[in-house]
User: What shape does this take?
Amino acid sequence: MPQAGMTQEELLALPTAVDIVTAGRAFGVSRTTAYRLASAGTFPVPVRHVGGSYRVSRADLLRELGVVETISA
Assistant: This one.
């Protein structure tokens, strides 16, 4: 059963890089599916293997999901 996606506010509050489970949640997929896609090289955004874990760039997530980040002056 797919997980609920994240709100725009949640996405904008993410750190610079997130784990694969959090990235999967942003796309509305389960932990198992996120790991399966990452290991198959078919996750919707680039995935980096750092140490023993998968990491995804927040900027890549926002771009793929069409979330525009505005900077207040």
Summary: Residues 8-65 form one domain. The chain is about 40% helix and 15% strand. Strands lie at 17-19, 48-50, 53-57. The first helix runs from residue 8 to 12.
